[in-house]
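Hi all, posting the design record for the shared folder.

TITLE: backbone redesign
STEP: 1 of 1
STRUCTURE INPUT:
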């Protein structure tokens, strides 16, 4: 089953980019943003970085959902990327354009391939591959670019995945072109060889036998086509989304009776914690059939003995921590506020480990029936960072996602570290996460945005995380034909 919205692919190329780097060309990357209204923009996608290039043709397609009934304002920005940080604040802006999605109708111009001299007469080549799809006008559009293999005349490139839509518009008889080039740092790559084929020919290959050669006796291609399931395929096919809430009750939030406290409930009946629970819960509850959400608090002195707990039920029923719907979570939170004393420290690992135990039990089943989403709302001052790192690495191998919403104006560097945007998160022993499962969002970024914006941002990664887990396990949706074999 396909997604219920139309996905539009934007292919981006540039010419005559300015050089911001001293002594070399820029390393451009394109970033796609969509308007949220009121001069608010949110990032939707970004391409790969192309090194030392003033005329980049980006291989990665920018994806955006298309809604005919909306005016969707887009902003495409080109940045010179000189570091590994995902933040654009320290990167040079090379230029950009604003438009609406409805206005985007710019077919690429056809280009002739210019013959080039044989590569590297005095040494070995640095080969890489480019794969092109054919447009309706007969022009070739870049669909994939491989890694460069340095100093090698017998390269073996890493296996890769590319969607049929990107490669041939879903038509296996539509021509594709493969070129092999010798990489040059100044961007003037030498052509080694090229051929044209289509996926129907590639599909005829059995047992991993070679299908094409670029130049005599050089085998380059093996093919396997797999079914790609979407998030909706899983949830409509019977996968249950289990939503759990964890709320920070540490003393750094301030006395709930004080208007300066992050737990203070304003005259309109809301605070940042309540807003986050409402925004995310209202979306997630539609994917939970029983609408029963376990909700926990951490970092408070709890009745009846007044001892600190990092995993107490908001409804004070440890054997049945489930709340009926989002409203049930709200009611339990309000009741807990007047019955606990804010204390500390701020430990995430107990709640992550709690949900992980349920996810681990689900992972023992050979079906894609249970996926867990943990929402943690906190003021940001985490104290068990090392234990939390270990808990996240362990959870990355389970059917589980973690959403962290930071309230207030504290330093959220630890949260950004857990998000993994600055690099792959690792445990204390150096074990990396199996997949990215953490999404962090500061609440203040959305205070003046439409109420739907927070939920859209914090939940944006969950569908990809769910699909990536079941793809890793090679598990189809529960009610798909494959699962019934």
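Okay, here is what came back for every position:
SEQUENCE:
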């Amino acid at each position: 089953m396909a997604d219920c919205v139309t996905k539009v692919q934007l292919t981006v190329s540039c010419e005559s980019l300015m050089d911001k780097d001293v002594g070399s060309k820029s390393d451009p990357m394109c970033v796609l943003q969509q308007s949220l209204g009121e001069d608010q923009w949110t990032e939707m996608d970004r391409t790969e970085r192309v090194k030392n290039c003033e005329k980049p043709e980006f291989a990665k397609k920018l994806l955006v959902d298309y809604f005919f009934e909306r005016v969707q304002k887009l902003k495409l920005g080109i940045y010179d990327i000189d570091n590994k940080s995902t933040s654009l604040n320290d990167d040079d802006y090379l230029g950009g354009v604003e438009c609406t999605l409805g206005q985007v109708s710019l077919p690429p111009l056809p280009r002739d391939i210019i013959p080039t001299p044989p590569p590297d007469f005095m040494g070995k080549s640095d080969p890489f591959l480019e794969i092109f799809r054919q447009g309706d006008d007969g022009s070739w559009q870049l669909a994939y670019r491989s890694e460069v293999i340095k100093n090698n005349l017998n390269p073996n490139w890493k296996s890769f995945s590319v969607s049929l839509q990107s490669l041939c518009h879903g038509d296996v008889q539509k021509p594709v072109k493969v070129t092999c080039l010798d990489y040059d740092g100044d961007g003037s790559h030498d052509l080694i060889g090229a051929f044209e084929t289509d996926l129907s020919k590639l599909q005829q290959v059995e047992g991993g036998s070679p299908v094409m050669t670029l130049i005599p006796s050089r085998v380059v291609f093996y093919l396997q086509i797999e079914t790609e399931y979407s998030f909706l395929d899983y949830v409509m096919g019977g996968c249950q989304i289990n939503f759990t809430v964890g709320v920070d009750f540490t003393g750094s939030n301030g006395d709930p009776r004080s208007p300066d406290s992050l737990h203070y409930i304003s005259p309109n009946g809301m605070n940042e914690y309540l807003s986050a629970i409402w925004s995310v819960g209202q979306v997630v509850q539609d994917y939970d059939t029983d609408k029963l959400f376990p909700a926990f608090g951490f970092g408070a002195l709890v009745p009846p003995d007044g001892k600190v707990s990092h995993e107490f039920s908001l409804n004070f029923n440890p054997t049945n921590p489930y709340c009926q719907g989002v409203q049930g979570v709200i009611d339990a939170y309000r009741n807990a506020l007047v019955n606990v004393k804010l204390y500390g420290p701020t430990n995430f690992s107990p709640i992550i480990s709690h949900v992980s135990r349920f996810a681990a039990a689900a992972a023992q089943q050979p079906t894609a029936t249970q996926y867990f989403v943990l929402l943690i709302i906190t003021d940001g001052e985490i104290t068990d960072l090392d234990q939390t790192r270990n808990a996240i690495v362990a959870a990355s191998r389970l059917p589980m996602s973690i959403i962290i919403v930071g309230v207030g104006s504290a330093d959220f560097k630890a949260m950004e570290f857990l998000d993994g945007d600055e690099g792959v998160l690792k445990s204390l022993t150096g074990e990396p996460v199996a997949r990215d499962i953490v999404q962090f969002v500061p609440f203040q970024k959305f205070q003046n945005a439409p109420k739907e914006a927070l939920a859209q941002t914090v939940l944006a990664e969950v569908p990809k995380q769910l699909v990536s887990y079941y793809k890793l396990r090679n598990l189809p949706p529960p009610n798909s034909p494959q699962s019934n074999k």
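COMMENT: Residues 105-119, 207-211, 216-220 have pLDDT under 50 and may be disordered.
Let me know if anyone wants the other runs.
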